[in-house]
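Late entry, written up from scratch paper. The run itself happened at the end of the previous shift, but nothing got recorded in the book at the time, so transcribing now.
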Amino acid sequence: MKITLEIPDNRADFLLELLRSLPFVKLRGQAAKAPAQDETAYLLSSAANAERLYAALERDRRGQRETHELPATI
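Output as recorded:
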């Protein structure tokens, strides 16, 4: 089966990283050649995400941490 996806540029890196993690997916063309983006670079790629990341780092430096339980099912 062959599937072609058209996705917005701002979601491409995320989707490619997700697809690369699946053992049964074989990427071809440009998708296969594109390097995986570093998670930190992805988080810093938008101003809103970068602001949230830096705010979280600052809270951590001050010792203001929150603990969350993972859901039993996803």
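The two ends are 28 Å apart (CA to CA).
(Scratch paper discarded after transcription.)
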